Amino acid sequence: MHLVVVHNSNSSGENSSDSLLLLAFSGGLVTDAVVGRISEYYGLHRDNLTFAIPEEWKRAGGVSNQGVLFYDGKVPLLQHRYAPSSKSWYVISDGRFFAQTDLQLLYETIARINSDVVVVDVEPCLKAGCEKVLTDSHKNLVGIRLLYADVVQPAPIPSDWPHHLFIRSSIISRLFKDGTLPATFSEFLNGCRSISANITGIGIGGLTLDLNTEQGLLSMLPGGLGRKANSQSNYPANEKWIHNNDISISADARLFGKIAFGRNVTIGANAIIAGPAVIADGANIADKAVIRNCIIGPGVSVPAGCVLQNRVIVASSRIASQFCDAVSKNVSRNLQDGSSFLSRYRMWPIFSYARCIKRIADIIIATSVLVVFVPILPFVALAVKLGSQGPVFFKDMRQGLHGKPFACLKFRTMLVGADAMQEKLRALNEADGPQFVISDDPRMSRVGRFLRETYIDEIPQFLSILLGHMSVVGPRPSPESENVLCPFWRDARLSVRPGLTGLWQVCRTRQPMKDFQEWIHYDIEYVRNLSIGLDLWICWQTAKKMFVNFVRQF
Fold it and tell me: Over the chain, what is the mean pLDDT?
């Protein structure tokens, strides 16, 4: 049995009409999105997942009673819905937070703990990809540890309700004699002590969304909005919009992405709405207003020409005048031409060097190189084939501009089965980041070593440059498994096409335990300072390095 409780303590002093937590659970489209996202995340049927919500939050015509318990005072535990067993758990989660973690890791950890009650807090600092600063007793820096997997560790018992409580079903009747949940967490702990229940606290890596904040509530939308297009609508039933019949949308309005409309909604002329978004009952979006990734509450009127982005508006009075200014022209232009408004990445004007001239130069250079090397490519392919068993080319999926995957093609330089050998050689890895680098790599063939030292193995990548997947100069093309380790670095480096060479390749020092930090630093520096002068300097440094390496082979 899993119970998600919106505690009265969470709503204390926040019962006014502009409470975001109230909007999240008092019924309507937003509640449907939140409840749907939570149910989908836990993978539970609604019969095994119940939401306990304060009775005063119930609205006429609000959320369905299925799977929702409106309580007044204390929360009844619905004891008839669980099977008392020493091996089963009654799970209680704090409804204010959507705490995401590796559920398999969590359940495996809980199963190994021999306690009556397990208190679980999800901590972002324990999530894979985070860096932990290590200090000594005098607060002096000892080192920095990068977490490559989610971590579980003992944690102190908190003073308020944790993200999750795991209670053995066998002690429920003794712990909650009146069949209700105590009003405060301190009362719950006192109850555990009164029956001598063993309590263990753990912290586990993950992400938490506070549903009483704009950022937390908006983050629930992408996965929480269902996909159901009304076949009777005048709009294409392509699962792109979600709406009812009783709305008025101007023929000049532009809609993008998944949008949930309530009843009696009005959308004015030349208004732009980009999903995910929720436009609740009775909302009025005036002419030329721009809405992107927003929740517009019931009865809210958005003024003409107003720009709202990443906002939750529960009352018309909350729309400040600074949102209705000339910014709308820029946002409207981006959305009117059908382009996605990618605030995650750095963007350049269409006719800038980074977006136009650089691409033209890539096409010219790639075409020239391929024409020059076409006569020798068959001989290189033959050498690779005769040098060792296996295919001539090595193909691997990498992430390109804005994370779009593409097949990166190179001449094969390693023996067949190199991936399996890598795990056996993991202890010899000389790189501190996600890369695998060892001197005199035994996985490399004799022909492959020559091709790699002379950079001939990378000639096929000029095909990727010609197709627009890569550029001559840019960050190193990396797979998704490497990019996810550092989100901010990922978003910066994916703002441009990956390159055959780059700033990190010509500036790295290869100092022990610094390579990954240098990789991040130089990728960000390149995106920040991208210019024709920087690209030419990188090309010159690369040419010198290639010449020296080629001469060394003889």
Answer: 81
